[in-house]
From TrEMBL, chain A:
Coiled coil: none
Molecular function terms from GO: ATP binding; hydrolase activity; transferase activity
Record's protein name: Carboxyltransferase domain-containing protein
InterPro entries: CT_C_D, Cyclophilin-like_dom_sf, PxpB
Superkingdom in the source lineage: Bacteria
Domain Carboxyltransferase: 3-224
Positions of transmembrane segments: none
Native species: Ensifer oleiphilus
One Pfam family per UniProt: CT_C_D
TrEMBL record, chain B:
Taxonomic path: Bacteria, Pseudomonadati, Pseudomonadota, Alphaproteobacteria, Hyphomicrobiales
The keyword Iron-sulfur appears for this protein: no
Pfam family, one: CT_A_B
UniProt entry keywords in alphabetical sequence: ATP-binding, Hydrolase, Nucleotide-binding, Transferase
Official protein name in the record: Biotin-dependent carboxyltransferase
């Protein structure tokens, strides 16, 4: 489908690269958003990449909406011709799956769930065709994920699983949203994973919790001193299952300022990825384990 | 000098004109819901128009001053009192050390703006003093005020004279509010019937109306053009692949209750939006109470820009009158 341009009132231009989610649509929207950033068009105050679209906020006192539209359209061609390669980073996120805190929360809100008799993990494993929760966790943590959007609330990453579409984990959201979700819950809704950056309301299924803060407005967490938000659109995430002891140890390390998330700079090539998804992912994981 | 908070009102927060530049990380603009009223209050006491003041919704706080200063209250009609003596709105008035500022009941509008000469001197967070409570960011310790808080006040730079905003330069919504909307975004998801009824029906502000968004009820349910839902969008016809949300955009989950996102907006999500309230009318929303009858008026981009120019002229006139 052709890229669709539409105005959000007199201060926003909304660009939809595709109405359905795919890595190609994500790549195009991220490249275009980056292109707009580099172009330095005057009067643009915000550039927000999303999953398959992006949004620009501009000051109509400085630039006419039609001029923003014309200049952004001009970037589309260049973005399409550009090599589908991004310089990004891969980060390993430890996850304590089936943890007591999300478990307590999901039991508290059981009447809002599709399947009140089991847990969110039981339900997600069953409807995605996995034999048991262990197999499901193996699949969830077995391939990397793209951070396709950062937002909703401060610093929350939406993540898109880097596997063939037929292998992607999909689950509906809760029937009615919860009024509470533990901070740092690893969740999933539709085809997107997320990490709740702060405690609060939420509708995604809850699978586990990470000991690693990803938003810190006080900027006291050792790796968030330079900036309070950890994730950026385009980051690649690999989940690493951990047990209770490792979780407790990581929490203590974070408190004492000696936790540092394993991060590697990588170059991601969409064409190479699509030629051999499993092989490409194995190489990406190797980079993280190779330290 | 400091201001002691004796009572916090309902929800009183430190606000300025917001923190642009971080919406791509989910951190919203924030800042005064009624930016014009915030600017006016600041200019009245000799502050920069983007200085930090207090925004109080529905119920005023009770504040004690430790030094002589100049104060102005703008926005909603909620009379201010100094040691029980009523003060005029949209007008600077002196407050002496040891005196207490309280407020009468709300008569119209929803939010008052309290500016103090020298402004609220809390630390800058990402370039702004606005409070973003969900992120525990900015303002006074990242949260709404509570009894016992002591707010630091900066050095005053005004002349200290008691000035007033002319009647014709004050702005409050009418009994029936008309909000101008530019259709767009996912407008074409709506059926022809829904495109008609959205603008034809009278809506009312629902009780769920805050700095994040204003919800509306009372109009007919909106129906959608049938389609097979795109991959990743979710099964409800009002779902889309999660995208960014513009400020002022109108989403209608399930087609039932429109929600206009405001200054503390969530930056994105999976509900279709039918269009966006134009920038000239955003301040008005901040002054709407629950149950306010509301009509949505369809406008073109040219009309939106003309309305914006009119608001800019009003602001210029305000600045000129208080120079």
């Amino acid at each position: 489908m052709p890229t669709r341009y539409t105005f959000g009132g007199d201060e926003h231009l909304f660009v939809e690269c595709s109405d359905e989610m795919s890595l190609e649509a994500f790549f195009k929207s991220l490249s275009m958003a980056n292109g707009v950033k580099e172009s330095g068009i005057k009067g643009i105050t915000e550039i927000c990449p999303a999953n398959a679209s992006f949004q620009i906020k501009f000051d109509p006192d400085q630039i006419k909406p039609d001029d923003v539209l014309r200049e952004v359209r001009a970037i589309e061609g260049a973005a399409e011709r550009a090599e589908p390669v991004i310089r990004t980073r891969i980060v390993e996120i430890p996850v304590f799956y089936n943890d007591p805190w999300t478990h307590e929360t999901l039991m508290r809100f059981r009447e809002r769930h599709q399947e009140p008799s089991g847990t969110d993990l039981d339900y997600a494993a069953r409807i995605n065709g996995y034999g048991d929760v262990d197999d499901f966790v193996a699949a969830h943590s077995g391939s990397p994920w793209f951070v396709s959007m950062v937002g909703f609330v401060a610093g929350l990453p939406f993540m898109y699983q880097m596997v063939e579409r037929q292998r992607q984990i999909q689950v509906p959201k809760y029937l009615r949203p919860r009024t509470d979700t533990p901070r740092l819950t690893v969740g999933h809704g539709g085809c997107f994973g997320c990490i709740y950056s702060v405690r609060g309301a939420g509708g995604y299924q809850m699978f586990g919790i990470t000991p690693m803060p990803i938003f810190d407005p006080t900027q006291t967490t050792s790796y968030l001193r330079e900036f309070m938000v950890f994730f950026r659109p385009g980051d690649i995430v690999k989940f690493k299952p951990i047990d209770r002891d490792a979780y407790d140890q990581a929490v203590e390390d974070v408190d004492k300022g000696r936790f540092s998330p394993p991060v590697r700079e990588v170059s991601f090539d969409l064409r190479e990825f699509q030629k051999d998804i499993t092989g490409y992912n194995t190489r990406l994981e190797g980079m993280i384990n190779d330290h | 000098m400091t201001i002691k908070v004796l009572h916090h009102g309902l929800a009183t927060t430190v606000q300025d004109l917001g923190r642009p530049g971080y919406f791509h990380l989910g951190i919203p603009l924030g800042g005064a819901m009624d930016r014009y009223a915030m600017r006016a209050a600041n200019l009245l006491v000799g502050n920069d128009e983007g200085a930090a003041g207090l925004e109080a919704v529905f119920l005023g706080p009770k504040l004690e001053f430790t030094e002589d200063t100049l104060v102005a209250v703008t926005g909603a009609d909620m009379p201010a009192k100094v040691d029980g003596v009523e003060q005029p709105g949209w007008t600077a008035f002196p407050v002496r050390a040891g005196q207490t500022l309280t407020f009468d009941f709300l008569k119209s509008g929803a939010r008052i703006y309290i500016a103090v000469a020298g402004s609220i001197d809390v630390p800058l967070a990402l370039g702004s003093r606005s409070t973003y409570p969900i992120g525990a960011l900015g303002g006074y310790k990242g949260r709404p005020l509570a009894a016992g808080d002591e707010l630091p006040i900066g050095a005053a730079n005004g002349s200290g004279e008691a000035r007033s905003v002319a009647e014709q330069l004050r702005r409050l919504p009418a009994a029936l509010v008309a909000l101008r909307v530019l259709p767009g975004l996912y407008w074409d998801r709506l059926s022809d019937e829904a495109k008609q009824s959205f603008f034809a029906d009278e809506w009312k502000v629902a009780p769920e109306a805050d700095r994040m968004g204003y919800r509306f009820r009372g109009g007919r349910k909106l129906s959608f053009v049938e389609r097979e839902q795109p991959f990743g969008a979710g099964s409800d016809p009002s779902n889309i692949v999660d995208s960014c949300y513009p400020y002022g955009s109108i989403q209608v989950p399930g087609g039932t209750e429109p929600i206009i996102l405001h200054r503390d907006a969530v930056s994105g999500g999976g509900y279709f939006m039918l269009g966006t309230v134009i920038s000239a009318d955003m301040d008005l929303i901040g002054q709407m109470q629950p149950h306010t009858p509301t009509r949505f008026i369809e406008v073109t981009m040219d009309e939106a820009l003309a309305a914006r120019a009119e608001e800019n002229d009003r602001l210029e006139a305000l600045r000129a009158s208080l120079r």
